[in-house]
């Protein structure tokens, strides 16, 4: 980084550990909130993950006024409008999001509507549109990957225009993020793998993209160390609560890192692929990460080489010549993907997903060039460059 100026901002209170959920009523009462709404999805409810949240509130005499459990994987303007209507009719005064990235993003968008008014979330899209604090808002993540519990962004689909609407404001940040290992113990192997690779990508891009800074670097490297030290252990022992907590904390750290230093081409391609082919975001991150690092290699050789220490440990780092550490870091990520494929068949190429057509690659490339994340990629990307990366990621 040649420019010495940077900003770092993360005012979210983090409550983490094996009894973190029990602190929710205290946090709500501190903001004079008495009528919370829970926003979640059917998978979370079916897995029984709402039970400890509701129990923690009821034991403190706090009633959950409304539970909306029908958030889809790709939330839309219509879903946000419907939930905001329920919030108003039930006279709720706060929101608890319980779930992964989609539930959290949906809750952020609902908070905009119930705080600012109106029914069309699109009018608040963009950066800097919000001018006032929103309603009390708490996040309980059930995946260890998105980092949405500590980011000032949300993405909601406009299904009519087939685009994803971005929202960026510090007012979107939750009042607190509750990180409890009970919430990720039942994650299926492929979701455990994909969300961890999402967090790994957040941290890696935060450390190698243009807006990196010393504080985001510290969070990024700590996150990578936790992921590489715990992901395969958790894949082999899914009920390892300590390992689950480490991955959840890594996700939060990576979220803090990238929300302060931004991301690059991996995310631009991933957003485009998600919009066009409806692949889960974490899977897209895992698919594209090594190919984009290879594309950026000569621009990011020094920082990428530093990451070898956190990806493969001190012994490998010391034994690898400095001139080869960047390539070794990419190899370490490839080995991680191979290990995950062996355990749960998490796809490593677009072809392996079975959901992407080769004929769609040009459309993905064009859409990626219009994505805001590409501005922070350390190397300029042309349409032909994006097509070339996609061709390598195909098979």
UniProtKB/TrEMBL annotation:
Q: What are the UniProt keywords, alphabetically?
A: NAD, Oxidoreductase
* Gene source species: Marinobacter profundi
Which cofactors is this protein said to need? Answer: Fe cation
Q: In this protein, which residues make up the domain named Alcohol dehydrogenase iron-type/glycerol dehydrogenase GldA?
A: 11-181
Per the record's keyword annotation, is Hydrolase included, yes or no?
A: no
Protein name from the UniProt record: Alcohol dehydrogenase
Which Gene3D superfamilies does the UniProt record give?
3.40.50.1970, Dehydroquinate synthase-like - alpha domain (1.20.1090.10)
Phylogenetic classification of the source organism: Bacteria, Pseudomonadati, Pseudomonadota, Gammaproteobacteria, Pseudomonadales
The UniProt family comment states: Belongs to the iron-containing alcohol dehydrogenase family.
Q: Its domain of life?
A: Bacteria
Q: Which residues form the Fe-containing alcohol dehydrogenase-like C-terminal domain?
A: 192-394
* InterPro entries in alphabetical order: ADH_Fe/GldA, ADH_Fe_C, ADH_Fe_CS, Alcohol_dehydrogenase_Fe
Q: Does the keyword rRNA processing apply?
A: no
Instruction: Write one Gene Ontology MF term.
Output: metal ion binding
The protein's matches in Pfam families, at most eight in alphabetical order, are given as:
ADH_Fe_C, Fe-ADH
